[in-house]
């Protein structure tokens, strides 16, 4: 018996010893020798990894690994360190030092890991700690502090980002990837900020490439690319919770203070000896959106001096329905009475995001990933009109096989939008359901507009008993008899009915569009002469709007595009010179193919001082909406630019430019006021009209040259400066034209009948998608400085200068630049100022500029200069694995507008609690 007991104990001891020898154990501390929780330990060149517990300890399964091996140890805000392991029996101890650009690693610039200082093009990065301690309401909003980033707020939950000019509130020139997935809804064709993105609690890092990135990322990366990476479930395990509540609309005359809430949950776990891992995410955000309430008269047919509340042709910027106007004989321009946006828009907003990721390791280097994302939202945004999407759903399915830096991936993205609507169209439709004829009978909607103008003319001309003649206020009051008042049962019932009808019958938006995407890349590690990388992609859009946005009710519209790239990198001169060359070819079935090469050189002139230069090219295919939209929005029809989309409509061939129509209408109005008859005024002013010659749409292109310098001086001061010059051709833009019923020209001059059509309702306005015939250029420079002070303080700032070079180009034939000339950021922070108290503050300023966009008919509108201060103070509670944060976005509550016609934005004040890695 004693022998058996001894034998069993020996076996157990041996097994225990063997088990211990199968693991690497150790402790990670910070630069003050404090234990580091959630530090990352990864086997170099493998996919094996783990993180430390709250005491800084870790255990890594090494049963499938061969010695010697190298561990990469990292923690947010501290420098990465590589440790060679030759013996499993001895625990290791690693002390990480303060982080700097010397050891910051980026991936997006070359699609492979490289040091930030040595990247061949400009790139910015927000790491994990920066994400956790952003002063803004969300990490996405804090991206504005990155050098060269432009951000425009089109709603509480929607921020539009861009770099290097030519921006818009619906910006299709900028690519946004989340774990390699294009985040644009297939029907909108632009990313709606982080509305359908990822909760802050699952963000590991964000990398920004300003400028053309088409050579590696294809047509959508024309102006730049933002790559967001989420947390690896093998590394970041356990339960994490995020609770934030705050208020906005403080001292806002449009609404009293309102609650803003943001909650999120993440759980991740690895199983089966670290072979399988999963993570589950959920986030929910809600609040009352900002109001758009600029009622400035923007009537294009009224001289600026005559605009204002007393203008009979009044067309308010955020008032809808008053776009319907006529020039009445002997009276002049008269517009219908519109409704303010606040009476038409649903300003409640929410975003609910959820995802499930399943990952399995085949050995140490090969991983299979499946991920499902679903997001649903209610929000308002600005496009050619102010839109509301209610219950908009975006879903993606992704499957990926990854081996180190090589992968093959396929995903689908589909949207469901049944309850969205166009507020401008809504206002016009409501105006057609209450109009009475001169006998007091309500007419049918198809006769309402003309009947209203008939009533107005009769009252103004003195033919209505009891109405003072030649009095615009009295004539409008008579024409508006029976007008539905906002928030009455009749108004609400009509509003509800109109928003549920699609296409030409209502203001509703129906969109069930999808796209299917496959891409991959392969790193040729067996090639020794150069670092060689190649890849390709294929995408198919499957459009389904049931005829409401595009002409697909009786026909199927699909669009296929594909591309491939190759990149080679070579180190020369004892690794001081790095040369990189890449070229990509892309083809859309509706257009000719495009080659986009990129060449770059990075030279280390002395230790940690790098000069870089690059020549880049970019291109952008017209989006499906650019190509095929056919939306009748009452007074204007928005028309995509491929030839078969407007076949038989005679728009591109027979129309006048909007600018000339405005000059002509103003001239007629002035002539009539001077005593001419309307017929005489038409004949006298018709020469002001200009026939449009806009081409059908084609891809837009750019070529850019950039030089830059990066340095880390004394391991404290990080310097990054660059200059770029870009040349643009075939810029895609919107052009507004008027198509008369008659031919625009007759016997070599403007046709009088066509000119008359523009005044008597015999014409139709179109917003065309076309290309700029003139060439334009842009240039700019940025300077960024970051200094690491003693005791953990970091101060930094950046300044961006942007300039549009019009040259000899016609301003009406060039895309709008929509970018401030100067913008700056200054920030200061300390992650551990005193006993785990930290803070972060950022000041942003940008100067004034003119905004051009389809919302205002491509006419200029001022965006005034403004500044914002974001600040947060936090307390970390390591034993509870939590952090409490109090902060403010726009601390001083400056009421600003970032794009003409979009909402007025104020401050948001919040408190949050984050709990990380429970039950790990």
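^ Assign residues to that structure.
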């Amino acid at each position: 018996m004693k022998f058996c007991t001894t034998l069993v104990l020996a076996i157990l001891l041996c097994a225990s010893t063997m088990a211990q020898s199968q693991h690497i154990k150790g402790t990670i501390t910070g630069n003050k020798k404090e234990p580091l929780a959630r530090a990352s330990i990864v086997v170099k060149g493998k996919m094996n990894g783990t993180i430390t517990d709250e005491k800084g300890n870790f255990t890594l399964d090494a049963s499938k690994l061969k010695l010697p091996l190298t561990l990469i140890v990292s923690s947010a805000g501290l420098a990465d360190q590589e440790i060679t392991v030759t013996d499993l029996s001895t625990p290791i101890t690693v002390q990480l030092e303060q982080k700097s650009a010397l050891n910051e690693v980026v991936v997006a610039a070359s699609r492979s890991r490289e040091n930030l200082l040595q990247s061949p093009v400009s790139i910015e990065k927000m790491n994990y700690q920066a994400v956790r301690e952003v002063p803004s309401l969300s990490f996405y909003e804090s991206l504005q502090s990155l050098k060269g980033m432009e951000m425009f707020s089109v709603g509480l939950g929607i921020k539009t980002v861009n770099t290097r000019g030519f921006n818009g509130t619906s910006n299709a020139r900028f690519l946004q990837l989340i774990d390699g997935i294009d985040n644009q809804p297939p029907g909108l064709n632009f990313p709606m900020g982080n509305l359908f993105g990822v909760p802050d609690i699952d963000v590991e890092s964000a990398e920004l490439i300003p400028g053309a990135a088409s050579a590696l990322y294809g047509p959508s990366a024309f102006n730049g690319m933002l790559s967001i990476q989420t947390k690896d479930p093998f590394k970041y395990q356990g339960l994490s919770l995020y609770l934030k509540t705050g208020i906005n609309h403080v001292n806002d005359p449009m609404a009293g203070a309102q609650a803003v809430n943001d909650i999120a949950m993440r759980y991740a776990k690895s199983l089966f000896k670290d072979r399988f891992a999963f993570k589950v995410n959920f986030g929910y955000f809600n609040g009352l959106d900002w109001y758009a309430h600029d009622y400035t008269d923007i009537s294009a047919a009224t001289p600026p001096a005559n605009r204002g509340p007393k203008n009979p042709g009044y067309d308010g910027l955020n008032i809808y329905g008053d776009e319907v106007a006529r020039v009445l004989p002997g009276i002049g321009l008269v517009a219908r009475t519109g409704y303010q946006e606040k009476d038409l828009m649903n300003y409640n907003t929410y975003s609910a995001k959820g995802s499930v990721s399943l990952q399995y390791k085949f050995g140490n280097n090969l991983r299979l990933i499946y991920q499902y994302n679903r997001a649903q939202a209610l929000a308002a945004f600005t496009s050619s009109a102010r839109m509301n999407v209610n219950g908009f759903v975006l879903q993606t399915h992704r499957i990926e096989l990854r081996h180190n830096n090589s992968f093959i991936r396929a995903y689908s993205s589909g949207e469901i939008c049944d309850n969205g609507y166009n507020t401008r169209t809504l206002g016009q439709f409501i105006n057609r359901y209450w109009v009475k004829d001169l006998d007091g009978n309500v007419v049918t909607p198809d006769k309402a507009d003309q009947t209203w103008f008939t009533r107005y003319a009769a009252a103004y001309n003195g033919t209505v008993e009891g109405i003072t003649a030649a009095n615009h206020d009295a004539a409008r009051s008579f024409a508006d008899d029976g007008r539905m008042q906002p928030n009455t049962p009749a108004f609400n019932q009509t509003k509800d009915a109109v928003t549920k009808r699609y296409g030409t019958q209502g203001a509703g938006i129906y969109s069930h569009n999808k796209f299917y995407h496959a891409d991959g890349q392969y790193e040729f590690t067996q090639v020794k002469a150069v670092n060689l990388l190649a890849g390709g992609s294929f995408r198919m859009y499957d459009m389904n709007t049931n005829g409401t946005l595009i002409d697909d009710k009786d026909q199927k519209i699909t669009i296929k595009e594909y591309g491939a790239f190759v990149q080679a990198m070579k180190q020369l001169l004892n690794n001081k010179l790095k040369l990189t060359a890449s070229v990509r070819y892309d083809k859309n079935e509706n257009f000719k193919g495009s080659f986009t090469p990129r060449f770059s050189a990075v030279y280390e002139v002395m230790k940690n001082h790098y000069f870089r230069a690059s020549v880049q090219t970019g291109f952008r295919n017209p989006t499906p909406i650019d190509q095929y939209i056919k939306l009748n929005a009452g007074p204007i029809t928005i028309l995509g630019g491929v030839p078969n989309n407007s076949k038989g409509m005679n728009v591109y061939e027979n129309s006048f430019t909007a600018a000339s129509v405005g000059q002509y209408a103003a001239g007629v109005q002035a002539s009539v006021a001077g005593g001419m008859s309307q017929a005489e005024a038409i004949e006298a002013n018709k020469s002001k009209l200009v026939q449009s010659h806009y081409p059908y749409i084609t891809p837009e292109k750019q070529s850019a040259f950039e030089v830059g310098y990066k340095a880390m001086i004394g391991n404290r001061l990080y310097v990054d400066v660059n200059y770029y010059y870009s040349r643009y051709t075939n810029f895609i833009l919107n052009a507004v034209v008027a198509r008369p019923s008659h031919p625009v020209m007759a016997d070599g001059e403007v046709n009088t009948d066509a000119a008359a059509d523009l005044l008597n309702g015999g014409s139709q306005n179109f917003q065309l998608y076309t290309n700029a015939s003139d060439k334009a250029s842009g240039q700019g420079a940025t300077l960024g400085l970051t200094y690491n002070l003693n005791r953990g303080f970091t101060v930094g700032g950046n300044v961006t200068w942007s300039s549009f070079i019009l040259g000899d180009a016609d301003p009406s034939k060039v895309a709008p630049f929509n970018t401030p000339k100067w913008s700056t950021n200054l920030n200061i922070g300390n992650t551990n100022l005193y006993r785990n108290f930290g803070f972060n503050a950022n000041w942003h300023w940008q100067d004034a500029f003119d905004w051009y966009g389809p919302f205002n008919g491509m006419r200029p509108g001022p965006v005034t200069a403004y500044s914002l201060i974001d600040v947060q103070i936090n307390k970390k509670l390591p034993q509870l694995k939590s952090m409490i944060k109090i902060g403010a976005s726009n601390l001083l509550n400056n009421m600003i507008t970032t794009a003409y016609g979009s909402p007025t934005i104020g401050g948001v004040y919040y408190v949050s609690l984050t709990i990380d890695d429970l039950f790990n």
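Residues 656 and 690 are 5 Å apart (CA to CA).
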